[in-house]
Amino acid sequence: MENKDKMYHIGLEKKDLEGAEYAILPGDPQRVSEIAKYLQSGKPLTVSREYTSYLGDIANQKVLVISTGMGGPSTAICIEELAMLGIKYLIRVGTCGGMQLDVEAGDLVIATGAIRKEGTSKEYLPIEFPAIASLDITNALIDATKELGFKYHTGVVHCKDSFYGQHNPERMPVSYELLNEWQAWLKGNSLASEMETSALYIVSQVLNLQAGAVLLTVWNQEREKNNLDNKNDFDNTKEIQVAIKAIEILIQKKS
């Protein structure tokens, strides 16, 4: 018999969350167990499509960790269903490629806003509406990063639907558009490029949720173009620790 209380895509129902209002959102399902190590009394919940979930405690508050998958559509579905279950505060923990030359691999990027060069958010609000982060969550992420002593940047990130459209624009039939826009994003001082944050911010805005994002820079193609050192860094420890600490800060401020 069909369980009508269970969300169709993420496979969770309200009782599973035990009153959780906070959620940490990695894109990669495999990152969920990595984050769960930092929770108290953690337990796995579901694996449904690209959505793997885990529940545990931070500062005596229930916190959900759930993967969103890649891109705006799956992220938006996840947020919609989490809102129905009572989640109010969302922190994306993801990866990005640096764009400005001083954004090096291993640096953290705290996204204050996002360029809406993806399709999902356009089905929520007109393109003129900005994709911006919650001030409270952004401040908590900044405070957490400073306390932990990690190098970080704050500012706008670029969001797209096509990973290879960015990394191989010359072979695309619309290369003229992609290359020109990339230069515009660079001149506008976009810090990094990724795929989910603009959808997260716009959907959260519409649903009256608070959202923020902390991203690990894994490489920087602009540094490579300029013959600068461009090491790779895929160690997610720093942004996970920042998200955990930020939730502790938010909980403390509410108490």
Describe the structure.
The chain is α/β, with parallel strands linked by helices and 255 residues long. Helix content is 35%, strand content 29%. It has helices at residues 14-17, 30-36, 72-84, 135-148, 163-167, 175-187, 197-206, 221-225, 237-254; strands at residues 22-26, 40-48, 51-58, 61-66, 89-98, 108-117, 131-132, 152-160, 192-194, 210-220. Strand 3 and strand 4 form a beta hairpin. The model has no long low-confidence stretch (mean pLDDT 96).
Architecture blueprint of SSEs:
Blueprint: H1 14-17, E1 22-26, H2 30-36, E2 40-48, E3 51-58, E4 61-66, H3 72-84, E5 89-98, E6 108-117, E7 131-132, H4 135-148, E8 152-160, H5 163-167, H6 175-187, E9 192-194, H7 197-206, E10 210-220, H8 221-225, H9 237-254
